[in-house]
Amino acid sequence: FIAATSHPDQVQAEQNRPVFAVINLINFVLKMSWYSFYDTWGLSAFEGVYKSEAEFIEDLKNMWFGLYSRLNGAMDSSGFEHIFAGEIKGGKVSGFHNWIQFYLLEKRGALNYYSHSFDGPWSDYPDVLGLQFHWDGYYKQVGSAVIGSSPEFDFALYSLCYIARPGKYCYLSLGGKQLIIQTYTWENSFYGDGKKYIGSAYPVSM
Questions:
Q1: What percentage of the chain carries pLDDT values higher than 90?
Q2: Going by C-beta distance under 8 Å and a sequence separation of 6 or more, which residues neighbour residue 83?
Q3: Segment 113-122, tens digit of pLDDT
Q4: Which of the residues 51, 82, 168, 177 is marked catalytic?
Q5: Which residues contact 200 (CB under 8 A, 6 or more apart)?
Q6: Taking a C-beta distance cutoff of 8 angstroms, is the pair 10, 1 a contact?
Q7: Ramachandran area for residue 136 (φ above 0: left; ψ -120 to 50: alpha; else beta)
Q8: What is the three-class DSSP state of 45?
Q9: Has residue 4 been placed in a domain?
Q10: 3 domain-assigned
Q11: Catalytic: 82?
Q12: Domains: count for the chain
């Protein structure tokens, strides 16, 4: 991925292999989470939303990894890049809601953590923090992430909330305490039959 928006991201065939591996790895987690989610909310069953598992996987690939333009018409972004890797737009950090990316960049000396403005009510991990930091010279004034979770957990959580509550607050329970996920749809371009890409998703820190 290229962090700066307005620079086209290139998706090569060899890059697709880890993408597909990630999706296959989390598929079981997503499927089990889906049944649990819909049992809790009393909505339609999993099969009522997708006709097959293959259709579900294809939709995940499109909504997360499909490229769209955030700046100047260049195919420079995707939901996955924005949320898990982070981007630079307008001289500021945009997205960047993954603690593992945060840890790896800080370890390399490319990220400088300043402070946190929010610490969730959890006494153990996963937890939620609201963070301020500099990444490669660019500032993130307010950013939140689930801390101590696996990428599969984050991916499953955000996918479920995006599919069930696109562009809205998604109220969940984590360790007996309320967790709110905010999702955003990308409104400027579409895939398939008018479906919308993931614009962003993150835990609400307030």
A1: 54
A2: 95, 96, 97, 98, 154, 158, 198, 200, 201, 202
A3: 999 889 999 9
A4: 82
A5: 79, 82, 83, 95, 97, 182, 183, 184
A6: no
A7: left
A8: coil
A9: no
A10: no
A11: yes
A12: 1
104 within domain boundaries: yes
Cα distance between residue 132 and residue 171, in whole Å: 25
Is 97 catalytic? The answer is yes
Following CA atoms 141, 152, 177, 46 in sequence, which dihedral angle do they give, to the nearest 10 degrees?
Answer: 120
Q: How is the beta sheet containing 127-135 ordered, strand by strand?
A: 87-89, 92-94, 138-147, 127-135, 111-119
How far is residue 68's CA from residue 30's CA, in Å, rounded to a whole number? Answer: 25
The enclosing H or E element of 151 equals helix 151-164
The answer to whether the peptide bond before residue 166 is cis (omega within 30 degrees of 0) is: no
3-state secondary structure of 180: strand
Residue 140 annotated as catalytic: yes
Catalytic residue among 7, 31, 61, 97: 97
Please give the DSSP secondary-structure letter assigned to residue 182: E
Q: Is position 88 within any domain?
A: yes
* Structural domain for 52, as ranges: 13-203
Among residues 31, 51, 89, 140, which one is catalytic? 140
Rounded Cα distance, 190 and 13, in Å = 22
Instruction: Identify the helix (H) or strand (E) that includes residue 121.
Output: none
Closest CA to 205 of 139, 145, 125, 162: 145
Q: Tell me: the pLDDT tens digits for 74-97?
A: 888 999 999 999 999 889 999 999
